[in-house]
Design goal:
single chain, alpha/beta, Rossmann fold, 3 domains, 6-stranded mixed β-sheet, globular, binds adenosine-5'-triphosphate, binds magnesium ion
């Protein structure tokens, strides 16, 4: 059977002003009915810009978009939606304070939606929610997991009658089993005739799930091919990378830097952390792994001082820090990378400079007698950006104009640049292209010579790739410890979650 192209992008170009960044300089892409298409490329290659153009959020300077063979001119997302094209954002766009139900209809007039037959529409929404296992329609979005939020976004798109679904890094915050469920859902949508385009940095994942792969490099389509004709090597090379083995410098393990004893955290009646004890020594990178939100991320929030434990104590270099403020802990050399970076780690209205200096601007020598030394702060920022290869035009540029991966790099750079003794990081490599993932792994190796790291994750590959020792969490309890050396593959993490300590 001949495949049917539903959407086509031809020689699309886009430059952002006033910076003059050429995000797209010749992008081509065809999406077919009933198929899954993966879009890959290094951080800043133009992937998000491309899908935003397809979704009517941005207009191309040059080039054409065809839908069902006819040229279209999308001025707004509504124009794209009228053709059934909907974008699920890299940073989900739901309103936390509203319920799932309210979010499903946000910004849409129920009259339009129900104009045919209200009863029938309600039945269909019921069926859809069942299919997506969206049961808690009355729950506040703030109380949902990342995977659940994503489902709400997808449901929103489908309720509107999407036949082309664009997903910008849908797996960036998902754990292994959540990821699998998302892909099952995408495959079932494909069977109903949807065309699905998803952006990812994971080449294996793209080759496994997608029917076709397109690679963007510096704004140009350099590869577009059926997955059956591709292999990992070819895709990585098209992205402009050489595949490399991660370096394995053996660091000596030194004195104990962190000790936690009997830490318990309760929210309401729920036990988020249940008598967790552990110790980390200088030279170690320790993973905290759970399949979903099993307390591993909450533990890091407690360690940096964002939340108070219900009981238990935290010692850092023999000093009891349980009662210290975040600033006091940071001064001791503890750094933190939160899970939801855009909401918790950045001031999106601020410049790159303002975001880069948040941890230091109140400290000497950057502040003296209440005055800030802007020259020094600028120098500090430029050195940091250079060191971590954050691509920018100027430090005064608004931080929100950086690509998703460059934002991640900026946050990691800000934390690592200060040479912390203890790095607390949630999902540090998610959203980064493979080259930067390797680079972060190298930086963690360097950190070992003077400090240690705790990595909270629900991604088995990440835990395996970065950590020497992985502590398995399940429902707030520390279940067991795995030493990664000599273990064949990340899959053992899944099987070990169910076991007892
Ligand atoms: N609104 C904007 N204003 C100015 N520059 C922008 C804007 N959006 C993106 N850019 C720039 O365009 C280039 C491409 O960005 P884009 O977000 O499309 O990359 P990406 O491939 O999605 O990268 P990542 O993998 O890091 O998410 C980057 O250099 C980015 O800084
Ligand atoms: Mg992006």
């Amino acid at each position: 059977m001949r495949s049917k192209v539903i959407v086509q992008l031809l020689n699309v170009q886009k430059t952002f002003h006033p910076s003059g960044v050429r995000a797209l300089r010749g992008a081509n892409l065809s999406l077919e009915v009933g198929s899954i298409h993966a879009l890959l490329g290094a951080n800043g290659a133009g992937k998000t810009t491309l899908v935003r153009i397809l979704a009517g959020e941005l207009q191309p300077d040059v080039g054409k978009i065809f839908v069902d063979g006819k040229v279209v001119d999308f001025r707004t997302p509504k124009d794209a939606m009228r053709h059934g094209i909907v974008l699920v954002h890299q940073n989900l766009s739901l309103v936390d304070e509203l319920t799932v139900f309210e979010n499903l209809f946000l910004g849409r007039e129920p009259r339009r939606l129900f104009f045919l037959d209200k009863k029938k529409a309600e039945d269909e929404i019921g069926k859809l929610c069942e299919k997506l296992s969206l049961v808690a329609l009355n729950k506040r979005v703030a109380d949902l997991s990342m995977a659940e939020k994503q489902k709400v976004e997808i449901a929103r798109a489908l309720i509107f009658g999407a036949r082309v679904l664009l997903l910008d890094e849908p797996t960036a915050y998902l754990g292994g089993s959540e990821e699998e469920r998302l892909f099952e859902l995408l495959v079932s949508l494909k069977r109903t005739g949807c065309a699905i385009l998803f952006i990812t940095h994971d080449v294996d994942q793209a080759l496994k799930i997608a029917d076709r792969v397109t690679v963007l490099r510096e704004g140009e389509t350099v590869l577009s091919e059926e997955t059956s004709k591709l292999n990992v090597q070819r895709v990585i090379e098209a992205m402009g990378f050489r595949s490399s083995e991660p370096s394995s410098v053996c660091a000596q393990v030194g004195e104990e830097l962190l000790r936690i004893s009997d830490l318990t955290l309760k929210t309401g009646k729920r036990l988020v952390l249940d008598r967790v004890s552990l110790s980390v020594r200088q030279g170690e990178t320790v993973g905290l792994f759970g399949l979903g939100n099993d307390g591993q991320f909450d533990l890091l929030e407690v360690l940096i001082g964002l939340r108070n434990p219900s009981s238990g104590r935290i010692f850092f270099q023999t000093c009891d820090i349980t009662q210290l403020s975040i600033r006091e802990r940071r001064r001791l050399g503890i750094a933190y990378v939160p899970k939801d970076r855009l909401k918790e780690a950045l001031n999106l209205e601020g410049s790159i400079l303002e975001n880069a200096i948040v941890n230091v601007y109140r400290e000497k020598p950057y502040a003296k007698f209440g005055l800030l030394n802007w020259d020094l702060l600028k120098r500090y920022t430029l050195d940091m950006l250079k060191d971590f290869e954050v691509k920018t035009v100027s430090v005064a540029q608004p931080v929100r104009t950086l690509s998703g991966g460059n934002l991640q790099r900026l946050i990691l750079a800000r934390e690592l640049f200060q040479r912390p003794k203890l790095l607390l990081a949630c999902r540090p490599t998610s959203g980064l292209d493979v080259r930067v993932q390797d680079y972060i792994a190298q930086r963690l190796q360097q950190l070992k010579s003077y400090g240690c790291a705790l990595i909270a994750t629900n991604d088995a590959e990440e835990a395996f790739g970065l950590c020497d020792r992985i502590l398995i969490f399940s429902k707030g309890k520390l279940k067991r410890v795995l030493h990664t050396e000599g273990l064949a593959e990340p899959a053992v993490l899944f099987s070990s979650v169910g076991g007892e300590a």
